[in-house]
Amino acid sequence: MIELEGSLELEDPVLLAAFEGWNDAADAASAALDHLAKVWKARPVGQMDSDDYYDYQVNRPTVTTGDEGVRDIIWPTTRVMVATPPDAPRDIILVRGIEPNMRWRPFCDEIMGVADALGAEMTVLLGALLADSPHTRPIPVTASATDPDLASALGLEAPKYEGPTGIVGILQEACQRANLPAVSFWAAVPHYVASTPCPKATLALLRKVEDLLDLTVPLGDLPEDARAWERGVDDLARDDTEVSEYVQSLEQARDAADLPEATGEAIAREFERYLRRRPDRGGE
After folding, report:
1. 53, 93, 130, 132 from 201: Cα distances, Å
2. Closest CA to 113 of 64, 156, 175, 69
3. Using CA atoms, how far apart are residues 249 and 208, in angstroms rounded to an integer?
């Protein structure tokens, strides 16, 4: 089991998790965890024993050289960090790693042990998948919750997906067995621009985290990076008639299927987010 460092007494903690690999199209989910760890100045408190879960011929260790010429090995693993966001009513446990190559059930048992040891009250799982989504429209983010009361309170549905799954799906089921409420967010990355990174998808996931936990995430350059990414894809599409026509067909399908966004609830949510970000209200 993961040995946590030091004595940790957290305030109403929520566990956020994301994993590289099958669950992480364009690295959007792991990039969201990395962003949160950076802006919240998360401190590491433990990590998995990589020998138990990783095939090093699939996820190879890397060699680095420090400032003094000392070489070091970085092993693929899953790390646990703890953060206290400014002015937030709770602490955050961040679990950031790589989808394991083997022993998924013991892997999830270790994470559930961390959640129990640190008193997590809820788990939030982040993922990203490739989809028929136009890059010119807001990135769709689907959400589900395992706990019926939580799902009802948040207006979400129970997970309905059937088919092959990744470690995020297995961990969500482990939360359900442990009676730990779990919410999952999946960003739909346009499949025709699946190369990393996709800051627009990362931004969409962070917005969902903000809304769910009712806190403000400093975004830094991410909004401008997302706009630059979209402009870059626009330029590529203009140079290829087939791609341009395909994007237009996706836009038409998306616009026909979507309900109007300018609902009172949507407007109120965006206005509240704007107020939180004003400098005189503690925003970025």
Report:
1. 28, 22, 11, 14
2. 175
3. 27
Report whether 35 contacts 222 (CB < 8 A): yes
pLDDT band at 108 (very low <50, low <70, confident <90, very high): very high
The residue written with tokens 């955050």 in the block is: 92
Pair 25, 138: CB distance under 8 Å: no
Residue among 202, 207, 205 at smallest CA distance from 276: 207
Question: What is the three-class DSSP state of 189?
Answer: strand
Alpha helices in the chain (DSSP H): 28-39, 104-117, 148-154, 167-177, 199-213, 222-238, 241-257, 264-277
**One-letter amino acid of 141:** V
Answer yes or no: pTM beyond 0.70.
Answer: yes
Confidence tier at 148 by pLDDT (50, 70, 90) = confident
Q: How far apart are CA 84 and CA 13, in angstroms?
A: 9
The CA-atom distances, in angstroms, between 45 and each of 83, 113, 116, 118 are 10, 14, 15, 11
Tokens (6 digits) for 125: 């799982």
- Of 7 and 122, the one with more pLDDT: 122
